[in-house]
Amino acid sequence: MDIKVSIIIPAYNIEDYIGNCMESVLAQDCDMSAVEIIVVDDGSTDGTGRVIDEYAAKHENIRPIHKKNEGVSAARNDGVAAAKGEYIFFFDGDDFQEKETVRELVEIAEREKADAVIYGYHRYADGAVYETNLPRFDRTIYEGDSIIKKVMPAFIGLSNRDINNWIAGKEDALFVENPALWRILCKREVIIKNDLKFDTSLKVGEDTCFISEYLSCCGKVYVQQKCYYYLVTRESSAIFRYEREPLSKLDGKKKLNDARERLVERVKKRSGMDITATFAGTIVMSVIEMAFLLSKKNPEVSRKKRYAGYREFAEDPRVRKLIRHFEVGSGSFVKRMPFILLKKGCFGMLFTAATMLHLIGYEFKR
To answer: How big is the CA angle at 229 (ends 2 and 115), to the nearest 5 degrees?
Structure first.
């Protein structure tokens, strides 16, 4: 029987979680003979590979791939290269899904002739849902240029207008749709035809770049107002660790800037549209976030090294250009002041001010 759906699951050192994910996928209420489950063991050093092989021995539609550790992007690229299905789901190996996920979303894609179906998700920890997130879009169907103008910007970042709305105190001004790949059904044809690949230079943000470029290649996108996916929160996850390592986060942001630049050129070449404005505010805000993050006392990294890293990021010509184009709006003086310092090029003053605010217990929050 022809393969209708490929489910690609990268897995790295999740021995205690991968079984639950596999059970969830195997419990789908669709015709599983038309579904292949490609599980990519990315060089795990625990028992993850063994668990995957045990499931594969019992279920012929599970296709394990064991490879050296190269990161989640390379693992997903290998999964796509091996996939045969018309539709592709990218699930993470420590999460799980509702049993009707595959059936309902594929039915929608086929009925609507959609290249992508976006859906909602739950955040899950300690055996319970603690947050529910439905897609926030005005319409159900987007076609043509409206995908790049309305859908893609919701995932790629914040505009300058978003930042000024935040300064003015508007509710949810900084809301961005979670750009994770597990919340969108893709068509393999779109990926192959446009030679889309995950950026292996990125430790974080690879989802943002891939989903943004994928959407820019779509002719029709459908938004399903239902939650199918359970995102399991755990302190040992890569993103959890990344958020607590300031120099790693700084390096990640610099590489993401490089990746966004490449993305802008690819989208411009394909569509003639410049998408820089859709994420310009994100980069401007990042300079302030890094000032607060790197100015915080860290016994493992000297202040001199943290400040040098911050200045390098802030003085990147691409970043400086976006700062120059940003016009600070009216609103809270406390919120406006860091942006005013940025506009004046007072990076050292901003870093010092952030250091002093840490001393009185202030935490910068979006």
So the answer is: 50
